[in-house]
Model the fold of this input.
Amino acid sequence: MRNRMLALAMPLVGLALTVVTLQAATAQQPAFSDRPIRMNYGFAAGGSGDMAARLLADVATKVLGQRVVVENRTGANGMIAAEATARSPADGHTVLFCTTGNMTIITELPGVQLSVNPATELMGIGQLLRSTFGLVVGKESPYRSVQDLVAAARANPGKISYATPGVGSVQHLSNEILSQKLNIKMVHVPYRGSQAALHDLVSGRVDFSLTNLGDIISHVRSGSLRLLALGDPLGKRFFPDAPMISDVAPGFETYAWFGLCGPTGMPAAVVKRWEEAIKAAVEDPAVSEKLLNNGMVPAFTDAAALAQTMEKNRRDYREVIRAANIRVD
Done:
């Protein structure tokens, strides 16, 4: 009789253990509510960053089991989107597709009036990709190498011009770093965004641009722009025969990153879920192919590593900004 009772009890014990196991697993994987998840992006639709944000949102929708909607909240160099995110509950339902510029540079620029401080009111969740840089000139440009450009800048101080998408952008500071390393003086021509800068570069109104490959790779491939050199070794994936800027300016390296940020104070379990979504996007063959075709390199890092990257960026850019006396007034 006793053995029979034990035999009958064993399946019930197994069932109970199964229920407990499932409950534990559910506790470890916090569910998002049924309301949509917003991914704010501070720049206009149609650019390479916007494309990357939408690729991530598509994968995250599947991983999180809840629709992720990209919202383009433009203005104030990405700070409208940053403020909307920082002012939202830290529950993972509102996140920011963030960049080097609006998370690290803007906090160090004198003269900038910040409605929120990204360094204290936002936190990194994970990096999705790195955007490698290239130095390009128009197809009719007389400059065939970085050496040609540097020689012209030294022969004509303050005459050679470079285009950027704005004061305090990664592109602006990258050119300042190059100028400081080579001890040359060039003219900064800031535009309202990358497309306006590229238009004048293609037409020959400015001499060159040092910018991310995501914005120029199609122009280089079509021949409307000429690539003179790369800003970091990752660019060799796209143009293996191109020289490095560091060949002329030893130690020079520049790139940008794109990733996900959220309001400070997000629970660790929610951050982990988002990390899993970002990692899944990086490992998705279709996403990787799309990014690589547009000059961007999939490169996942978790929240802790992204926090370290941002701190280093702030230190490095702070020094460049002070040395060049850059202000936004």
Q: What stands out?
A: Residues 1-28 have pLDDT under 50 and may be disordered. The CA atoms of residues 132 and 255 lie 5 Å apart.
